[in-house]
Recover the amino acids of this structure.
């Protein structure tokens, strides 16, 4: 339990129905105000919309609503100024605010909870809170994408080895590699946008679980709060947290993408690879080894991915055994959700900045390309285009690679005659080899030839960047 500064007053029974107060330990165990006060402004907004509706429907008097409005304005100011006296005895954010309201405006404050329960209240608060956070995270994803697109455009022509099995496979451009992460982030944006639709439904009106006997107007409250509609079943409305689980699943994927990128940044920055350097402000040194510059930020992001994945499993497990409708278990949804939002937001904010500060080392990338026979597939394709069946071409080039390994050289270093000698066991290949083969063995030729949507040709990388500029609106 975090914030031990929140005071508790002397023990008192929960209500007139109880004979004895809860123990201090139970009070702390069941309270959530330590953390759910983070939703204080959403709680106030929800209450105001509810009170306005009650007044419009004639369930409370107009004067009561005016008093509630004035009291809430006062409370909002107190919270903003850090003056609000949070009290552990009042268990959660909802009761703390309601109690203060009653202290400020008397009976009108006591009327606020008419036709409502904390069960539909808390479900509304979380949805309001998460909706804003989703919008903020989408904006952060876009800033991160923007940084990727900028760097990708600068490196649309920068050749690097593309890997499969972490072995040099074929040349790609660094820009193409970065745009892969931009695509992933775009799916993350789409997932969040879709998840937001299900977050954006109003639970209020469900009351404790069965609805309420007052003549409420749920559509009015929904419109007041910017919800696109109301939850269709009261039992589901108060107990559903799958919107939070879905969000956390989307967040886990964001972090998983970031973690994959992190792994590459760490690898690329290793002196054994040396493809990039990260700006000093994202790295730390070692307390013992003066030469070290460690990529702490990507390492931590990779580590924090485990934490968010853990929250997803935590929330799924929280929900799996719950019968309808509300159960106190649900109070445990907030900390993982808050921490997920904080972790993802901080990570994206840092990554947008870090990507901008990546220093690329094209020479190291070019040197690595020379070591892995990266244009071997291009040589096979060359033979195929001249009529050799692909399997034979594959074998002929395998022989050439074997010869190059034996000689300790790369394929472009062979003369035409040397290539023919190397491939002599595939006689059908020999007459097809001509002086134009030199062109296909170059990295630039290999890159330029993959000139279709989704390919690595510099022209396509620039086109992909332009597509994203349009999507991102810049
Ligand atoms: N603090 C509670 C939560 O986070 C609010 C709802 C409590 N409702 C109840 N009937 N105990 O879920």
């Amino acid at each position: 339990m975090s914030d031990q500064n929140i005071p508790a007053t002397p023990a008192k029974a929960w209500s007139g129905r109880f004979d004895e107060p809860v123990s201090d330990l139970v009070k702390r165990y069941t309270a959530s105000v330590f953390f759910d006060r983070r939703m204080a402004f959403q709680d106030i907004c929800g209450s105001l919309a509810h009170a306005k509706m009650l007044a419009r429907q004639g369930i409370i008097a107009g004067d009561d609503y005016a008093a509630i409005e004035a009291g809430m304005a006062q409370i909002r100011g107190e919270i903003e100024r850090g003056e609000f006296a949070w009290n552990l005895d009042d268990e959660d954010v909802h009761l703390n605010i309601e109690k203060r309201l009653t202290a400020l405006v008397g009976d009108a404050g006591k009327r606020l909870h008419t036709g409502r329960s904390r069960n539909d209240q808390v479900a509304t608060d979380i949805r309001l809170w998460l909706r804003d956070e989703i919008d903020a995270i989408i904006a952060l994803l876009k800033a991160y994408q923007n940084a990727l697109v900028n760097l990708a455009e600068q490196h649309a022509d920068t050749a690097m080895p593309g890997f499969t099995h972490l072995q040099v496979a074929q040349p790609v451009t660094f820009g193409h590699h970065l745009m892969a992460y931009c695509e992933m982030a775009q799916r993350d944006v789409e997932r969040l946008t879709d998840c937001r639709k299900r977050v954006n439904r109003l639970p209020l009106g469900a009351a404790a679980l069965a609805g309420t006997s007052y003549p409420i107007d749920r559509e009015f409250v929904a419109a007041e709060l910017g919800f696109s509609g109301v939850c269709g079943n009261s039992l589901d409305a108060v107990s559903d947290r799958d919107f939070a689980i879905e969000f956390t699943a989307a967040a886990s994927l964001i972090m998983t993408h970031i973690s994959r990128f992190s792994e590459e940044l760490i690898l690329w920055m290793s002196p054994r690879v040396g493809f990039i350097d990260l700006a000093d402000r994202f790295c730390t040194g070692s307390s013992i080894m003066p030469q070290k510059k460690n990529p702490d930020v990507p390492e931590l992001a990779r580590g924090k991915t485990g934490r968010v994945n853990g929250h997803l499993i935590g929330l799924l497990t929280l929900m799996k055994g719950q019968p309808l409708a509300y159960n106190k278990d649900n109070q445990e949804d907030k900390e993982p959700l808050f921490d997920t939002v904080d972790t993802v937001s901080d990570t994206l904010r840092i990554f947008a900045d870090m990507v901008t500060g990546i220093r690329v080392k094209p020479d190291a990338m070019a040197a690595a390309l020379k070591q892995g026979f990266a244009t071997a597939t291009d040589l096979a394709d060359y033979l195929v285009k001249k009529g050799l069946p692909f399997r034979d071409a594959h074998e002929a080039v395998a022989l050439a690679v074997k010869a190059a390994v034996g000689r300790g050289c790369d394929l472009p270093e062979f003369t035409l005659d040397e290539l023919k000698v190397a491939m002599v066991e595939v006689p059908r290949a020999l007459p097809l080899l001509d002086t134009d083969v030199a062109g296909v063995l170059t990295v630039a030729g290999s890159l330029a030839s993959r000139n279709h949507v989704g390919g690595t040709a510099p022209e396509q990388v620039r086109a992909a960047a332009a597509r994203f500029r349009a999507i991102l609106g810049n």
About this structure: The chain has a mean pLDDT of 95.
